[in-house]
Design a protein that fits this description.
With 531 residues, this protein is α/β, with parallel strands linked by helices. It is built from 22 helices and 19 strands. The chain is elongated.
Length: 531
């Protein structure tokens, strides 16, 4: 029998199982020792190390392990295989199945290798796996997507949209999509990082932009390095394009695990409920004194939240962007809940354009995955002034009002101190039962008394012998009508509560909300969370 018959015509001269193992060895070597060492020198893990760190031990079932570009010698004998610059498969994170994949930067910088069918990075099999099996998708992004050299290989250039984002957009209304930017991301991979429910990047070693420094220099004449152009200081803190920034890749993996712990597998399921480890009836005496007597003094809203929710359960999203509002996932008696809280330490809690965009995205996230919302309100209104108008605060703020009225999940509004104007409307859902609670420190209206008096009584104040004194007299007179107890008399607010009752009451309502959530399971008519 000839050698050609022994290898079943495969041309390698090896038995099939030996051939399989040899090809797997090529895949495991990635871009070779030098490129792997370069990745480590840059402070970054390889894609296989990343998947190993974030998933349960031994859980990865890789797909497309053998994909790549083979080099063949005489008689079609295999010399080597350069693996495809993408690693993907099915794995588990804390026991839950996920679709996971990421660019292999050690192979051609993670750029596409031109196969007819993609494993991932710019759509492809990994997104299809998440879609058809209705499991979360985790993108580990470290690549620039396409390259101009592909036109020479193909012989023509591809029209934009042939490799589109249709599946990426569809997934936003179906399953949790999480992206970690772990290197330099541009082009398609950068776009997919934006098309995520949650994204995270590493300060100092990760960057994201539409196009990198060479393109910026060629098109605009600007000389800028990649960290200045798309590092975390820009992408997270200033632009809010990526949600969170961390100090290491392991920190990024921890944040992905925490985010997933609040999420259902898909929109046809409810979020997971954990055993209750924090007493539901816990009453915190510190809540009595947390709001200062001075109406203009700031206080620690984050500490207030910590005193109310299950201990250690807060996971803040976008903590360094739009800081006039706090958005966080947490638990009440083990049940996931979304927290939207105005932050008096920034602009006195007034809603600026960034805070509005941050609140909108978070409300959409919770609405998509059946997570009830609790608003902790201390908002004096929209941010005012020339800068606010140039930033379209009014438009963004009204978008927040619109989104609040579209919510399908149960919502609770708790007024801690101020709730004024149209920004106050963004904390209520008038199309729901519209349950409004308040602490005795609460106050509300179309606008604060001080600014309202200055506008409405301008002529009377100007004509007074002592304008300042007259202004204070009018303010004192009108402030008597702003007592929250007068509103409660008219049942225009549902209940005023002792601050110490906050946790027990919220736990009870969130438990009650579970029945409503079961009725509303499934995707909304809209696509889910907008970028």
């Amino acid at each position: 029998m000839s050698d050609r018959k022994l290898d079943n015509g495969r041309g390698s001269g090896a038995a099939p199982i030996d051939e399989l193992e040899r090809r797997r060895t090529f895949a495991a070597a990635m871009g070779g020792p030098e490129n792997v060492a370069r990745q480590h020198t840059g402070g970054r893990l390889t894609v296989r190390e990343r998947i190993e760190r974030i998933t349960d031990e031994g859980s990865l079932r890789e797909v497309g392990t053998l994909a790549g570009t083979g080099e063949y010698g005489e008689h079609h004998v295999l010399r080597k295989v350069t693996p495809a610059p993408y690693v993907a498969g099915l794995a588990r994170i804390d026991g839950r199945p996920v679709a996971i994949g990421g660019e292999d930067f050690t192979v051609r910088g993670g750029t596409s290798f031109g196969a007819l069918r993609r494993k991932g990075g710019q759509g492809g099999y990994i997104e299809d796996l998440a879609h058809h099996y209705k499991i979360p998708l985790v993108n580990l992004i470290d690549g620039a997507g396409g390259t101009v050299t592909s036109a020479k290989r193909r012989g023509y250039v591809v029209f934009p949209g042939v490799d589109g984002f249709e599946r990426s957009v569809e997934l936003l209304g179906e399953v949790p999509v999480i992206s970690a930017v772990l290197g330099t991301a541009a082009g398609g991979p950068a776009g997919r990082a934006i098309l995520s429910h949650f994204s995270v990047m590493v300060r100092g070693t990760s960057q994201i932009f539409a196009a990198g420094p060479p393109v910026v220099k060629r098109s605009l004449g600007q000389v800028i390095d990649k960290e200045e152009l798309g590092g975390a200081a820009v992408a997270v803190d200033e632009a809010g394009s990526v949600h969170n920034a961390v100090e290491s890749e392991d920190d990024a993996f921890d944040q992905i695990r925490r985010f997933l712990s609040f999420m259902p597998q898909n929109v046809w399921e409810l979020p997971p409920v954990l055993p209750v480890t924090d007493p539901v009836e816990r009453r915190e005496e510190a809540l009595l004194d947390i709001v200062p007597e001075s109406r203009t003094r700031a206080y620690d809203m984050k500490h207030l939240l910590e005193l109310v929710v299950d201990q250690g359960s807060i996971f803040e999203i976008r903590p360094t962007y739009g800081r006039a509002v706090i958005t966080a996932l947490a638990r009440l008696a083990g049940r996931p809940v979304g927290l939207v809280a105005n932050n008096p330490k920034f602009y006195g809690g007034a809603m600026d354009a960034d805070a509005a965009r941050k609140q909108i995205h978070f409300m959409e996230l919770c609405d998509t995955f059946h997570i009830p919302l609790v608003f902790f309100v201390d908002v004096p209104g929209f941010m005012v002034g020339l800068k606010a108008e140039k930033e379209a605060t009014l438009r963004e703020g009204m978008r927040a009002v619109y989104m609040a009225g579209q919510l399908s999940v149960p919502t609770l509004t708790l007024v801690i101190r101020k709730c004024y104007g149209m920004a106050g409307m963004a904390t209520c859902n008038k199309n729901d039962i519209d349950l409004k609670l308040a602490w005795p420190s609460g106050e509300w209206g179309s606008l604060p008394v001080e600014g309202g008096v200055a506008a409405a009584f301008r002529r009377e104040i100007a004509a007074a012998d002592d304008p300042k004194a007259r202004e204070k007299e009018i303010e004192a007179e009108l402030r008597a009508y702003s007592s929250p107890f007068r509103t409660a008399e008219a049942f225009a607010v549902e209940e005023i509560i002792d601050p110490r009752e906050t946790r027990p009451l919220l736990c009870e309502y969130i438990a009650l909300a579970e029945g409503r959530l079961k009725i509303g399971l499934g995707p909304r008519a809209k696509a889910g969370v907008s970028p």
